[in-house]
What does this fold into?
Amino acid sequence: MKKLLQSLNDKQREAVLYFDSPLLILAGAGSGKTRVITYKIAYMVRELSFSPERILAITFTNKAAREMRERVEELLGKEVPVLVSTFHSFCVRLLRSHAGKVGLKPNFIIVDSEDKKRLLKEVVKELNLDSELYSPSALSSVISNIKNGTFSLESAGIYYERISPIFETYNKKLKELNAVDFDDLLLYGR
It folds into this structure.
């Protein structure tokens, strides 16, 4: 482990060895963030005797998660069970374990962006709205912004009356299908 730590620059080494409080690492692409995280995981397991099952490393893309998992395995071996995941796949795992708390069954389905647009097309038709005015793509973005907290239905002002029934009907249909969209995964995973 000493050799690994010596291969880091001072700031990276400081981050790996820091444990006094939560730590945020901000750095540009290619600066060694993944290296710092994987070395920190290895340090926690090897030097501080952390149980690997209690370590969770989350990243955004599947590619980044795969790369991080491979690096952890190189450092600790494949048999060491550190969970490396994307935000979405971790939330799926969490939600499957606690689906009932949000009104779902554990075998819920995940609608992708195309399924979401098809469902919104049905909603527009069901509510007798002008499909030219309410495109599935635009509605998909609006619904994502609401679910992600970018803006609330209430802050939509004049559009509240128009968007609210669409939003409510869309979510009702998801519940009927025992389904979630990608935004729900993060929303329910909070």
Q: What stands out?
A: The longest strand covers residues 56-59. The mean pLDDT is 92. The chain has nine helices and four strands.
